[in-house]
């Protein structure tokens, strides 16, 4: 990695030559300004306001603008003559516990690399001293023309330095907290704790910039001439008054689902020993019987068709009741098909035949007596 500053760490009377290297890098996608009419790039030129001519970098200097608009020129020679002991030195002024540094003061991060073989021994000494003390070093250093505040700590086997804002550069949070008095119930705190426990920890290396990836895919699609389908915006729920308890409960369920936990088993474990709700089983209603049709294409040969045939026969022949019942019984045994009209005709024929046979028997009896 390319160093951006060379100097030394002042550790009491010990001087450690080091190189300053950027510990972070930006992956943000940068855009250019273009002319919409023809796609030409828009560039900024440095033009003097007095003669309206473009000025090169070698002709540009520094100046301080006073309150009345007066420009006070400041040269590099003027700045070099200032008593700045940290111009090329990272001067350690104290060792403090890490929790005494307000995260609001954190700024840019750098790695400090030992510059040369002679610097390896004192560099390692400072690193191991920081490890054993569980403290961080507060230091002053100069970078890009101004003195800055820094914090040195150990990352793996390297000394890292975080640029810090000066304490007077941190604004007080006045007027930021809610004005009204808000009371939080214990049930809400319990649900918030449950949500925190469910979300648990995260591997910081697994986090990535989803928006940057979406922009890269958009650029690749446009470069290849593919059509880009607009995505539906998600409802963030901003500005809505919601039921806090319901929102927390839904958040817990969603967190469990995203982590693949079985919500049913979890609820059963929490409610172990409770009585279950018993609900009676509703019986299904019996299907209604359809009324028998008067005329059917085929007779089923059952008792209903036989009874209806017998009733018709009884109404027509009141004198032959016993004969009609016998004939209906015989017709129910012998008939397996046929319509109701054929059954009635069959019964009539059997009745008349039976009557004739009975008359013949009565007339035949006297002849036998006579012959005897």
Describe this structure in words.
It is a single chain. With 372 residues, the protein is α+β, with helices and mostly antiparallel strands. The protein has helices at residues 76-80, 120-133, 186-199, 210-223, 244-258, 263-270, 303-316, 321-334, 340-371; strands at residues 3-11, 14-22, 62-65, 71-74, 89-97, 106-114, 135-143, 146-155, 158-164. It is extended, with a radius of gyration of 52 Å. Residues 262-286, 289-310 and 316-372 have low confidence and may be disordered.
The major sheet is characterized as: 7 strands, mixed, barrel
| Count, helices | 9
Radius of gyration in whole Å, from Cα?
52 Å
Distance between the termini: 149 Å
User: Which stretches are low in confidence, meaning pLDDT under 50 for 5 or more residues running?
Assistant: 262-286, 289-310, 316-372
Helicity, in percent?
25-40%
Adjacency order of strands in the biggest sheet: 1-2-6-9-8-7-5
Average pLDDT figure: 75
- Broad structural category: alpha+beta
| Strand and helix order | EEEEHEEHEEEHHHHHHH
Oligomer: single chain
Q: How many β strands by DSSP? A: 9
What is the 3D shape?
A: extended
Q: What fraction strand? A: 15-25%
List keywords for this structure.
372 residues; 35% helix; 9 helices; alpha+beta; disordered C terminus; two-stranded antiparallel ribbon; 7-stranded mixed beta barrel
How does the SSE layout of this entry go?
Elements: E1 3-11, E2 14-22, E3 62-65, E4 71-74, H1 76-80, E5 89-97, E6 106-114, H2 120-133, E7 135-143, E8 146-155, E9 158-164, H3 186-199, H4 210-223, H5 244-258, H6 263-270, H7 303-316, H8 321-334, H9 340-371
Helix pairs in contact: 3-5, 7-8, 7-9, 8-9
